[in-house]
Amino acid sequence: MDSEEGKKETGRYKTSAPPFLLNSLLFSFSEFLKKLCLRKMALRPIDNAMPMTPERPKKQAKIAVPAQKVPDRVGKDENKPPSVQTLPEDASMDYVLSENLQGFQDPDTKFQDLVGGLESKDWLKVCGSLNDARRFVLHHPVYLEPILEKFILVMVKSIKNPRSALCKTSLMAASDVFKAFGEKLLESESDSFNQLLLQMLLKASQDKKFVCEEADRALASMVESIAPLRLLKHLAPYAAHSNLRVRAKAAMSISNCVSKMDLKGMEEFGLVELIKMAANLMNDKLPEAREAARGIAVSLYEASTENEEEKQQFWQTFCHSNLPAIHALAMVKLVVSP
Question: Which of 42, 61, 202, 326 is most solvent-facing, going by the fewest CB within 10 Å?
């Protein structure tokens, strides 16, 4: 048995390596792997050696490029140069001053086309005809007098038109008509003058400056050309108009009329009515109306006390006898100096 165990023991040592040899082999193998790894890392591209943070793209400046409209070549000649863009029709209108309007060499021929032009549906043609009518008014009024009422209605229609150029041209024509015909405008049996007056007051009250200024000039021309007493009867109802701007514009024209009247004319219209009108306008919201009321009161005071020795006493008595106490006190303080 000892011999068999010895053989087995001898065979085991022959088939297995000593422990220190195995450790040496493992160490050598691990060193080999380390060298192999280092070699592979050395051969790897440098870009992959360590991760790099990608750079943030730089912002580019934005350049606004105007959009170009693709021309429509259908039905157009490509060899022709592009047409120049024209201004709006309103901007190309010429407003001719009255002093620059000349008479016609052949008014008979020109007058035949005038009525048709005034009735045209083309607003530019109507503007041209209005300027021709102004030339007739200023230099050949005898031609326009037979159709004066019809022409007034044409002006009213044109003033109502939303085209500012047509409206302004018609207001310029109204100024010339007032200067040329004056009180003849009041002789019409129709209501054409009152329609024209209302439209001028409305346009003078709007926000469009160049139309408003032209309407103011037309109202001033009306006051200068028509007798104040006759005109005052047409203006008086508008001093109580619901539109405060219309009321203010009417009050300014009334004040201008009263300033041109003497005591006899004021008495014919009504002194009491004038002082009541001034008292009501003094409480108006707009400063223009209150300033007009002050002008009416001063004109009335100067005319009514011209021949009175006790002017202040007369004015106080007149105001207190025709107005409520609070309104009378305001009228007295308005014109009586301390």
Answer: 61
- The whole-angstrom separation of Cα 175 and Cα 221 is 6
Q: What is the mean pLDDT of the chain?
A: 82
CA distances from 76 to 72, 83, 102, 323 (A): 8, 11, 43, 78
| Per-residue pLDDT tens digits for 98-148 | 999 999 999 999 998 898 899 899 999 999 999 999 999 999 999 999 999
Q: pLDDT, tens digit, for every residue of 19-41?
A: 666 666 666 767 777 666 656 55
Q: 52-60: long-range contacts at Cβ-Cβ below 8 A with a sequence spacing of 24 or more?
A: none
- CA geometry: angle at 128 spanning 123 and 129, to 5°? 95
Identify residue 165 by its one-letter amino acid code: A
Angstrom distances, CA of residue 30 to CA of 8, 16, 23: 33, 21, 11
Residue length, the chain? 338
Rounded-to-integer distance, Cα 135 and Cα 158, Å? 18
pTM of the model: 0.72
8 Å CB contact between 204 and 212: yes
Virtual torsion, Cα 150, 155, 157, 163, nearest 10 deg: 150
Q: What is the mean pLDDT of the segment spanning 263-275?
A: 96
| Confidence check: pLDDT of 159 > 80 | yes
What is the rounded CA–CA span in Å between residue 89 and residue 169? Answer: 14
DSSP 8-state assignment for residue 72: -
Measured distance CA(331)–CA(112) in Å, rounded? 57
Closest CA to 144 of 176, 120, 167: 176
Q: Which helix (H) or strand (E) holds 275?
A: helix 271-282
Tell me the CA distances in angstroms from 211 to 162, 167, 224, 255, one per residue in order.
11, 7, 20, 22
Amino acid, single-letter form, for residue 230: R
Angstrom distance (rounded) from CA 126 to CA 132: 10
